[in-house]
Amino acid sequence: METNQVPHLFLGGTCGENQWREDIVIPGLVSRGVDPALIFNPVVDDWNEEAQAREDELKRTTRYMLYVIASPNPDGVSANVSAYSLVELIMSLYDAPRRTVALFDTTGMAPHAAKAIKKSMQDLRQRFPHAPIFSEYTALLDWLAGELS
After folding, report:
1. Structural domains of the chain ordered from first start
2. What is the mean pLDDT of residues 68-89?
3. Which residues contact 78 (CB under 8 A, 6 or more apart)?
């Protein structure tokens, strides 16, 4: 980050070839008036202990933690989903329910994987009825922009 502002939004969740951070969420929030300095993207070229420590610190201190659960390769058909991203999301919902935001995107998932992810989303919505859990980027971006403005 190039300013002294503390990030208010941590972008957690699926990585791989999925560019949801760079292609959808960051530009979508900036176009809605959110200062990019308020957004922390933990993805770096060199994942090392320092990057892990920075991520862990920001998970403790940001206003919101967003976890996008999606295919790591949305341009193909994949049964893969980041198991650790799901674990992080669920731990966060239990540990910090007022700060946790989720989006489930089944684009590019094999039918069985998509069905399981949709069921997981339904179950989490039941267990955490006040949690902001989304299945569409537009609704997510509108909600986050309102919260971060």
Report:
1. 9-148 (3.40.50.450)
2. 85
3. 71, 72, 108, 109, 110, 113
